[in-house]
Amino acid sequence: MLSVHAVRHLRDFTLDVTLSVRKGETLVLIGENGAGKSTVLNLISGILTPDAGEIALGERTLYSGVERIDVPVENRKIGHLFQSYALFPHMTVFENVAFGLRCRKVPRPEIAFAVANQLRAMNLADLSDVNVGRLSGGQRQRVALARALVLDPDLLLLDEPLAAVDMRAQAAMREELHDRIKSAGIPCIVVTHNLGDALELADRICLIEEGKVVAEGAPEEVLGMRENRFIASFAGR
Q: For the chain, which residues make up each domain, given as ranges?
């Protein structure tokens, strides 16, 4: 289980968020641009450091302002898929998926075995030696997800995971992503501006406004709050 209380002073407001995600559960964060959704992911993964609070994943404390604990990014066992996918276009599919394992100095035979398994699972085995710069948006999304999952993470963070996928392919990719998340069986947080993503992926939805959680619950409960201006716009898309 992931447990988060994070405070971070931003330029326009102070982000102060408390949330939790159970094993095998997917929490979807929605809200206006600039509300702090991606910042929450970056605080959890360790890219940004909270000004106060505590972040725990299972039995491990990843951050504690009181105890002065701040586990480095590479030791948090978190798979983080960025909105841009952050792939290396000059590298092959295999090299991109293997990158994190090589940084951790995993032996080459273990890397080859783990990457090959992930590429098969993502239907990318035939593209192993292709440079990612030549791939479609959907294929790049699969590569980025494979790179996150090959590290055997305890938590998955996905920031606008289908933003670079062609609209015509989004429905199929959304279903595939849902299956991959569920098969991983770990806590997952998804940031999205897409109603389809929220409906397909969410076990719970959390609405964030100016760094605060203003609503949280089952998708039908939160999306039924049509008196909220953002929800009325979001659910009406």
A: 87-151
